Amino acid sequence: MIVAFSVSPLGVGEDVGEYVADAVRVVRESGLPNRTDAMFTSIEGDWDEVMDVVKRAVAAVEARAGRVSLVLKADIRPGVTDGLTSKVATVERHLAGGERGA
Question: Is the model's pLDDT at 99 over the cut of 70?
């Protein structure tokens, strides 16, 4: 499964990068495949391990902020691995070839 999530503190002002870095640090230290962009961090693994990492990432932000917002989206496909890379590769292949779907 791939989970894309965003965790942000509320009530701490506009500059939340330091708090978000605490959450991303938890994800990177997990050893699971992950990718962070401007809006979300995506992580890949089985249900229990991914949800544990998300829970710990939220706790890292919550430790410094009394209120936390979590947005989460999951792609649940048992047996599929390397989705973080393969899904993007498929799109890039279509872009390179100029292929268009119906």
Answer: no
